[in-house]
Amino acid sequence: MKEFPGWLILASAALAACSPSSSESAGTASSTATTSNGAAVARPVVAATAATSGGGCPRTGKWALCSVENRLVQSGFVVRRVNGEAPRRAGFSVTPAVYTLGRSRLEVFIYPGESVLAADVAKMDTATAAPRGAKNPWPFFSPTFVHSGNLAAVFLTDNATQAERLTLALTAGAPQP
Asked: Residue 162 above 80 pLDDT?
């Protein structure tokens, strides 16, 4: 039997380790790959999570909390939901879901439809994310108000780059059916 040069075996192993398999593209990875000479090469195992895979999130063309979370994770945010009851906010007819994104706070308001959100936004001062004439109810920072489809969000941060990233992530639109 003819013996292969060592560099050829190493090159084959490196190529096999860098090549995606069909199971990896579906969100799972095998823990080993086999080279042409039968040697096993270790590969990292990639675990799929609901937050990154989008599994179980409704594909209706409207925002849902899971689609917001997926979009934020895809945009590079570390998303942590705040436990406990969220405060009612003046001017908003729905209760928010509250998240921390690093040192920042995000309140997400999911409306049943765009017309209900439009009615609330028409009565608001979007610079303060409060009813017109009311003082800024948000502690510490000036709010960044975002609305897209059936979603409104108030982002409290002192980081202009994060505010822009969040705005771009959410105004790109809800995931399509």
From this structure: yes
Residue type, 5: P
Contact between 170 and 148 (Cβ < 8 Å) = yes
Which pLDDT value is given to residue 42?
36
Question: 122-144: per-residue pLDDT in tens?
Answer: 999 999 999 999 988 887 778 99
Nearest 5°: CA angle at 54, between 51 and 57? 105
Instruction: Give domain limits for the chain.
Output: 6-42, 50-171
Kindly report the CATH class assigned to 50-171. Answer: alpha beta
* 18 has pLDDT over 50: no
Q: Which helix (H) or strand (E) holds 61?
A: none
Structure tokens at 65: 């909390």
CA 7/CA 12 separation, integer angstroms: 8
Region of poorest pLDDT, from 69-83, 118-132, 134-148: 134-148
Cα separation, 56 vs 112, in Å, equals: 19
42 φ, ψ (degrees, to nearest 5) = -70, 140
Cα angle, residue 36 at apex, residues 39 and 1 outer, rounded to 5°: 90
